[in-house]
Each structure stands twice: as C-alpha cells, then as structure tokens.
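Morning. Coffee machine broken again, so started the prediction first thing and wrote up yesterday's gels while waiting. Chain of 288 residues, entered below exactly as on the submission form.
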Amino acid sequence: MSLATHFFLTPENLRQIIEFRDQPAAVSSSISLDLGINRVIATLSREKCIQIGKRMLPIPEEFRTSEDERTIYIWRAQAWEKWQTFDEKSGKYYKMVFVQPGKPPTIEISGIKMHITQNGDPEQDTQFKLKSLKQLQGHVLDTCMGLGYTAIAASSLSKVKEVICCEKDPVVLEFCQENPWSQSLFRDPKIHPLLFPVDEFVTTLPDSFIDTIIHDPPRFALAPELYSAPFYTELYRILRPGGGIYHYTGNPNRQTRRTALAQKTAQLLLKTGFRQANMAYAGVVARK
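Came back before lunch.
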C-alpha cells in the first residue's frame, strides 16, 4: 500500500503566520507541518512563503487573515487544499477537523464527529474506551476502524498479539493513508486493516477466535445492522469464553428516548447470551 507524504497547515500554524506577517524581514520559527508529531525550523520569507531548506510553500493571502479554528489544509499537487471531500457515490461530506495543538485530528462525516472532543481530544477519547475493558489481550477485533487510533493504541499493549480492524468506507481509508497519526495502521505488523464490512467479515471467523472486541460503530441511525441481535449473535460466537466486548453507543436523541440507547444495548447483549453488561464510558462493557 503506497503512503503519500504531505504537508499540513492547522489553525495553530496560521496563528503563527499571522503573528509574523507584518515583520519587515524573514522570520524563522519552530513549526509542525505534520499535525504536531514533529517540529522543524521554518522561515516565513518576505515572499510570504514557508521555507524549509530549499522547499518553498506559498501562503495565500486568505490564510494570513483566517480565523477558522477547525479547518486543516493539505499540500497536494503543488497547492493547498482544505482537507475535506464530498463523495458523490455515497452523498457524504468528509472533513478532517483540527481539535488541539499536538493532538490527532478527528473526522466529521456529514456533520457527525467520529470522536468525543467536547472536553478532550481523540487520543483521550480512545484511552477512555480502552480502559473501560480493563484488560486487552490476545486477538483483538476492532469492528469499525475509522482513523485507526483505537487499533494503534490497542496494539501498543504487551498482551495484545494482533488487532484485526474492519473499515467499509474507502474514503475513510484514504484519509488514513494521508493522516500522519494513522500511519502505524500500515506499518505495525500487529495491525491488520481490512476494507470490509464487519457484519460480513465476522461470519468468516471460527468460533471463540477473538479474545477482545472493540465495537465503536457509527450512530444507530447510520448503521442499525451493527446494533442488531443477529450481529451480536455473531460477536458472541467468535468471542472466547470470558472474553470482553466494549460497545460504544453514545447517547443520541436523549431528549426523546424513553430508554437510553446504552440501556437498550445492554439488554439486547444480555438476551444474546453476554453477561455482566454494565454501563461504561459512552457505552457498554460485557463478557461472554
């Protein structure tokens, strides 16, 4: 799988550029052009370009006056573009969103954010979900890969042998290939990303093959099949006895629902055969 190397500009970068825009001479500064993973010394030249060594990246005038706190720009084909796209096939709009300096970005799909970032960031959100399981080990199934942060964090644990992760959306996979924070998906030998719907993939696995399941699906309205009894039956079948599952539910439509989605999910998991289905961070944890 070919991975491209790109430069990125975030609102943090643009604030630096605005700060130095009126300087009479070129100004050098430490800057990150890979979303906060590394920093380099770059020069903001009098020609209104970022200069890194011999490489010159122009800064359009509208960037130097931007007050947008969410948009990330990516350097492609010798030009800056907003890191977003509209997929005509699915009718969905995808936007990579800046959250905090030095933290991984999240993605919005048709206005719905993939991570809980109201009082934190995607990294923190991922850790809270994993800690809900208390222990991860053996063969882990990440049912809905997204940007891969969960799979990457799980693979770093010593007791985890491998992480199999499914993602059915090719557009999301393309964002992963560009995202500096997602690169371990393709480089870590413990991680196996699959472009495949998880409800189809689980039917191919043998009984009791998986030790831990991390089920972080889209909202119920977007993927009701991933909240269904037939799907839970398959998850129960492939999970080893004593194995754990974390199921993200969030709390959509809490104003109108008589019973919270997490409670309904716990009840259905219990009916499927799972035990100890308890409320956890933004979801439910259960065991076989």
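The mean pLDDT is 90. Going to sketch it on the whiteboard this afternoon.
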